[in-house]
């Protein structure tokens, strides 16, 4: 249970990452990913990377620069332009629906204009989920200049699209529906220089 705790990635650039263990029973037609990050990085960095043997960017949440998030599903991506960080925690949720190919992006409890992405696609199972590095190969192929440095918390993955109410609840850290990955019952393994500390 990592309630009120954070992962601190101490070095920049870094070869460290956290492996998350999730039981995905079947391929995903829908999902919602939420997490909170706190960093002063201005270079590109990876927040959440889910790779399968067939596709290294099966799900990827990537920040190429302070004013932009990229959300990948099955190797294709859409870009959401955001205001440059005000030096505070940023809470993001990204959700995707295969049937319509609609990608939603929420920043700090506010929805951005929806975009189209990979309609009819299915996210594969038996993947590797990493926080803080981008996989360019299954479980590896890291570029340290895409590594995360700073603090990460409140990581959740649901195998459904969350309603707007639940998206706002995630931002406010309220009660949330059961998740495939949940911060309060996270199975994880730290690789390298990452420290678990109380949230400041």
From TrEMBL:
GO terms for biological process: acute-phase response; innate immune response. Signal peptide: none annotated. PROSITE patterns: PTX_1 (PS00289), PTX_2 (PS51828). Gene3D superfamilies: 2.60.120.200. Keywords: Acute phase, Calcium, Disulfide bond, Metal-binding, Secreted, Signal. Its cofactor is Ca(2+). This is Pentraxin family member. It comes from Heliornis fulica (sungrebe). The lineage of its organism: Eukaryota, Metazoa, Chordata, Craniata, Vertebrata.
């Amino acid at each position: 249970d990592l309630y009120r705790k954070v992962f601190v990635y101490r070095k920049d650039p870094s070869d460290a990452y956290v492996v998350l263990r999730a039981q995905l029973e079947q391929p995903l037609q829908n999902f919602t990913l939420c997490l909170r990050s706190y960093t002063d990085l201005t270079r590109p960095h990876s927040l959440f990377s889910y790779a399968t043997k067939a596709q290294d960017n099966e799900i990827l949440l990537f920040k190429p620069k302070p004013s932009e998030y990229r959300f990948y599903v099955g190797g294709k991506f859409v870009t959401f332009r955001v205001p440059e960080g005000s030096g505070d925690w940023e809470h993001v949720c990204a959700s995707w629906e295969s049937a319509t190919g609609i990608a939603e992006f929420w920043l700090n409890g506010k929805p951005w204009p929806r975009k189209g992405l990979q309609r009819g696609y299915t996210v594969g199972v038996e993947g590797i989920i990493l926080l803080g590095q981008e996989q360019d190969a299954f479980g590896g192929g890291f570029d340290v200049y895409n590594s995360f440095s700073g603090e990460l918390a409140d990581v959740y993955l649901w195998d459904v699209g969350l309603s707007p109410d639940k998206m706002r609840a995630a931002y406010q850290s309220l009660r949330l529906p059961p998740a495939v990955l949940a911060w309060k019952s996270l199975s994880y393994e730290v690789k390298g220089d990452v420290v678990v500390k109380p949230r400041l």
